[in-house]
Protein: peptidoglycan lytic exotransglycosylase
Organism: Sphingomonas panacisoli
Amino acid sequence: MNLSKLVAVIALTVLLAACSGRIVPPSSSTGSIPAPVRKPVASTPLPPITNNNAVAAGANAAGAGLIAGPAVSSLTIDRARASKALTAFRLSCRELMRRTDVSGLTRGVDWQPACSAAQTANDAQTFFATNFETIQVGDGKAFATGYYIPEILGSRLRRSGYEVPIYGRPTDLIDVDLGKFSDTLKGKSIRGRVEGKNFVPYYDRTQIESGAMTNAPIIGYAADPVALFFLQVQGSGDVRQPDGSTFRIGYDSQNGRDYTGIGKLMKDRGLIQRGSMQDIVAWLRANPDQGRDIMRENKSYVFFRLLDGPPLGALGLPVTGGVTVAADAKFIPLGAPVFLSMDRVDANGLWIAQDTGGAIKGSNRVDTFWGSGREAEAIAGGMSARGSALLLVPVGTLARLQGGASGGTTPQR
C-alpha cells in the first residue's frame, strides 16, 4: 500500500465518522402486506431545559453544552421498564468500563460504582435514582424513530426464484482507524481496498450489483432485491426458506460509502406522496428498472454474517425490544441510560443505548428498537416522536466536567 496515498485519503475524509451496525428507517420487506402502522397514544412531553450553554454544532456531547437535569427520582419511570433497563445496563457494563467514551463525558472508571451496584440491585427504580444524575446535552430536543427485526424470503442455496446474492464480508475490505494516524482523528475510520499500490474506496452498490466484487462469500439468496435492500437498511433479520425454516443474518460490515435515504429522494421527485415505507416499497416493486436505479443512489452496501443467537448491537451484545436504543456515540455513551419524554406514550421512559446507526447522528437523536414480529413492525414503522431527552450519567460527572462546580445550573423547565 502506498502510505502517502493513504494519508491523502485520510486528509480528504477527516469528517467521516466510523460506520456502524445498523441503518434506518424500518420497513416490511417480506413481499407480503406490511403490518399496519399502529396509531400512537399521544402524551405531553416535558419541555427541554433552557440551556444558554447549548452549542448547535458541538463535535460531541462535551462540546455541545451541558446543563444539570432534574433528580432521577423525580422522573416518571415505570417499574417494569426500569427492571428491564437494569438488566440491559448490567449487560452493557463490561463495555462501558472498557471502551473509550468519545462523547467526552465519562471515563471507564466512572461507571465502576454503578456497575458494581447493578450486580446485586433488587429495586431497579431505587438503583437508578441512587447511582445516577441527569444531564441535558445541548438544547435537549429529542427525535426518535424506530427499528425492528424484519423477515424476508430467501434460501441458503440458489434456486429458481431465489437468485439475489446475500453477501458476507469481502476478504479485500480493509478498515482504517484514522485515530492511529492523528489524535485529532480519534473515533473516525474509513473503509476501502488496495488496488495496486493505492488505497481506494470500496465498490459502491452499483459496482457490487454489476459483478465488480469478487472476494465476498455468498451466505444465501434473497427472493426479492427490494426486500434485501431494506434488510440492509435494517441491518439484521430473519430469512424464511421455501420449506418454512428460517435462518438469521446480521450486520458484519459495510462498504464505507455514505448512506442516502431514498424515501426523501422519491418524495422530492414527486414519485410518492407521503413518503411512508408502504408507499416506497409499492413504487419500487411497480417500477423495477427505475426502482433499481433509485436504490443504487444509496451507495452504501451492507455485508452480513450468519447468526445463531439473538440480534447484536454495536457493542457486540444482545439488544432488547422496548429497551435498546441506537444513538450517536459522540453524544450518548454506548451502554448509558437515556430518559425520553416524548409526544407518544410508547417512546417514553428509560432506555439503554446499545446500538448505533448510519443515519442516527447528533445530540438527542435516537432510534428505538422493538424486537421482531408484526407488532414490532407496526410500532417501529410508524415511530416518529419528538420531545426531550436526558442522559443518565454516574453521580458527580457534571461536577467533574465543570472543574469541581456544584452540579451545574438548577434546571428550569
